[in-house]
Amino acid sequence: MSRSKVMDRRTALKGVGVAIGLPLLEAMMPSGIFGGSASAEEKKSALAAAGMGGSSSKTPVRLAFVAIPNGMWMDHFTPKTVGPLTDLPPSLKPLEALRGDFSILSGLAQDNARAKGDGPGDHARSAAAFLTGAHPFKTAGSNIKLGISVDQVAAKSIGQQTQLPSLELGCDVGRKAGECDSGYACAYVSNISWADETTPMPKLVDPAAVFERLFGKNTGQFDMARKMAERKSILDYVRDDTKRLEKQVGSADQKKLDEFTTSLRELERRIENNMKNKEAVAPPPGFNRPTGIPKEYSEHLKLMYDMMIVAFQTDCTRVCTFQVASEGSNRSFNFIGVSGAHHELSHHGKKPDNVEAIKKIDHFYMSQFGYFLQRMKAVKEGSGTLLDNCLIMMGSGIGDGDRHNHDDLPILLAGKGGGTVVPGRHVQYPKNTPLCNLFVSMLQRAKVNATRFADSTGPLPQLS
Q1: Over pLDDT 90: what percentage of the chain?
Q2: In terms of CB atoms within 10 Å, which of 227, 231, 277, 339 comes out highest?
């Protein structure tokens, strides 16, 4: 390709019923940035000047929100000192190699998750309010009422720039109707993303379905089951387009394309293996085709995290939510040596055995999240990494699962937001600082025109 002509960032590999978005290539960058004799430092400077570097505010910032159920054992999550993350507490030890890539934000609260006269139902309220900052109308019927969530505010503003305005992921299907928590409808427990007051965004729990959503050019034209029946890889459908592109780009881009297609094929194989595995989880009600849901929870989490990475890497979307389990989840964790179920154990009563079990569960979730961040950091993008160009909030709408408190929440913020955030710290905010202040700050860094959201009082300071 002539370097006088810049390749469109939305260029995709296309075949019958298939479109695969590409990672950021040098050919998509302004001419002259990558001269053959340019040094690494010269390339970095040129990238920043052109607004393509990992430290440039012009680089698209992706937003992700990861929800963990049932709170955490806060003594093992909150660093003992404010400032640089020099000594991580036990639950954060899986992130040791990433201590410069995330911050812990203490003192944040979600006020509308509190009862406010509605009595029991803290799990439903914590999930419902987590990203909306709204108080759910207490009902077990269909007359649910809540509010738009922060991810959908972003999707409405920047979603038209990508194939998918947003992507909603989960590991639990959840019930669509009925009561799930002390008079609250199951919709509140099972969803963290809401398009408006009455419409939760349906989440995908099947990795195969996510794969289809990302790479199917037109709905219904491509599905994993048909591809498997034909004994093909998705890359077979775009082979001709891939060969054409390889001839048009330089050697560095050819290497990047090879790395990308290799990783995509590996992800595809993992999904296929779960679809073939007779021990895989049975399809949830309403599924009318083979499912790629793994039997092993850890593999399910990893696959969904990997789908989020490829969605961001290919610029299919810049907004994603991931509810790793429905709020109040009573999932068993026998596979990590924990007897008993999560929700029951979270009501620990400070009993040593229960507390130790909760610590192990917290450590497991942080290990899986660490896998996600490590993979994000390994993806080179411009002069930085994919993680550098993201803001990823991980946390829960409950602090201590036994107290059901909604202040001093476990909140972690990863990524540099295109150079607009300085990670690697423990920041302590005044008690009951609205969590929605963080959302305003994240929206602004993603170029969403927002000064307020829900009960926010303004952007959250001390992030940059």
Answers
A1: 77
A2: 227
Say if 275 falls within a structural domain: no
- Token readout for 239 is 């082979």
Structural domain boundaries enclosing 444: 60-205+298-464
* C-alpha pair distances (Å), 374 with each of 1, 102, 197, 416: 33, 12, 36, 14
Share above pLDDT 70 across residues of the chain, in percent, rounded to a whole number:
88
Cα radius of gyration rounded to whole Å, the chain? 22
Domain count, the chain: 1
Where are the extended beta strands (E) located within 341-446?
Answer: 380-381, 384-385, 390-395, 411-414, 425-434
Q: Using pLDDT thresholds of 50, 70 and 90, give the confidence band for residue 66.
A: very high
73 vs 357: CA distance, rounded Å: 10
Of 113-122, 147-156, 171-180, 405-414, minimum mean pLDDT range:
171-180
The CA-atom distances, in angstroms, between 456 and each of 24, 51, 268, 439, 443 are: 35, 31, 41, 8, 12
pLDDT score, position 321: 98
Dmax (CA) for the chain in angstroms is: 69
Is the separation of the CB atoms in 345 and 332 below 8 Å? no
End-to-end CA distance of the chain: give it in Å, rounded: 39
Question: For residue 395, is it within any domain?
Answer: yes
Residue 175 has pLDDT above 80, yes or no: no
So what's the pLDDT on residue 305?
98
CA dist., res. 253 & res. 251, Å (int): 5
Phi, psi of 228 (to 5 degrees): -65, -40
E strand segments, 8-59: 12-15, 18-21
Q: What angle do the packed helices 352-378 and 297-313 form, to 10 degrees?
A: 30
Asked, for residue 219, whether it belongs to a domain, the answer is: no
Residue whose C-alpha is closest to residue 196's, from 147, 150, 235, 132: 147
361 located within any domain: yes
| CATH code of the domain in which 378 resides | 3.40.720.10
Predicted pLDDT at 173: 84
Distance CA 379, CA 216 (A): 23
Q: Which of 25-34, 252-261, 312-321 has the lowest mean pLDDT?
A: 25-34
Residues in the chain: 464
Q: How many CA atoms, within 13 angstroms, populate the side-chain half-sphere of residue 316?
A: 23
Residue 237 clears pLDDT 50, i.e. is over it: yes
pLDDT of 356: 97
